[in-house]
Amino acid sequence: MLLKDKTVIVTGGSRGIGAAVAIGCAQHGANVVVSHHSNADEVVAAIQALGRGVVAVKGDVADPATGSLLVQAAVEHFGGVDVLVSNAGICPFHAFLDMPPETLKRTMEVNLHGAYFVTQAVANRMKEQGRGGSIIAMSSISALVGGEFQTHYTPTKAGVHSLMQSCAIALGKYGIRCNSLLPGTILTDINKDDLADLDKKAYFEKRIPLGRLGQPEDLVGPAVFLASDMAQYVTGAALLVDGGMFVNLQ
Ligand SMILES: NC(=O)C1=CN([C@@H]2O[C@H](COP(=O)(O)OP(=O)(O)OC[C@H]3O[C@@H](n4cnc5c(N)ncnc54)[C@H](O)[C@@H]3O)[C@@H](O)[C@H]2O)C=CC1
Ligand SMILES: C[C@H](O)[C@@H]1OC(=O)[C@H](O)[C@@H]1O
């Protein structure tokens, strides 16, 4: 029980990586605030079945007010917040030369500004509580490498990684640790259409030394580790969770 009675906020917790991490944290003893933009009924039921506390809060992370609402829910239901997993994100694949300004703007607002606002609201609460905390941003292998149809997306993933580095410095004095996870290619709704291109899917599979694409559950161990006291001296770090895809040049 690495997270026994800790309170964890997971943004984008309704499906994919966020849902797996929310349930994984509950399996390790945490109560969870599931921040979502759609419907979180399944995740809520799964966490209730584990006998842990759970509350779902609907809202757009791009709205600066959402962070405070998430903190408020954590305080009302569980008395405070110990961990934030800033995971909500979008990747509407599109070519560079005719990128619609609205698509660029929205991707930046959700992925980067959203992470910023929620991190800021949670960090203020953690500072007030005076017992430290752990903030984890879901960055990406895409913070390190490019993508032809991800010119609006990869800068946001480099951005959230950079945000965690700067926050590690700004918040270290309060005992708040800030790290990022860099998933490789994980099978979720975000890339369902992209990976319908079977040649592309086969290329990824061939490039991954561990021989398979990732599953959302592959992020649970790394997230729980960074959330827990096992990582008490880890801050400003970035952990690739990609089956070895990044390092496999030839
Ligand atoms: N699937 C992959 O291969 C990889 C994903 N990631 C990152 O992992 C995170 C989770 O992605 P997946 O689980 O793959 O995708 P997903 O599409 O399955 O889940 C995204 C989640 O974010 C929520 N969300 C989207 N826009 C939101 C908004 N404006 N406000 C609040 N919530 C919002 C969705 O409701 C959903 O719960 C994203 O930040 C993504 O960039 C990073 C590397 C690889
Ligand atoms: C959406 C992509 O398929 C996924 O997200 C990322 O961050 C990586 O680029 C993955 O391939």
From TrEMBL:
The keyword Oxidoreductase is assigned to this record: yes
Residue ranges of every copy of the Ketoreductase domain listed in the record: 6-177
Catalytic reaction list: L-rhamnofuranose + NADP(+) = L-rhamnono-1,4-lactone + NADPH + H(+); L-rhamnofuranose + NAD(+) = L-rhamnono-1,4-lactone + NADH + H(+)
Pfam families per UniProt: adh_short_C2
Any GO molecular function: quinone binding
Gene3D superfamilies in the record: NAD(P)-binding Rossmann-like Domain (3.40.50.720)
Matching PANTHER family: (3R)-3-HYDROXYACYL-COA DEHYDROGENASE, SHORT-CHAIN DEHYDROGENASES/REDUCTASES FAMILY MEMBER
Protein name stated in the entry: L-rhamnose 1-dehydrogenase (NAD(P)(+))
Species name: Amantichitinum ursilacus
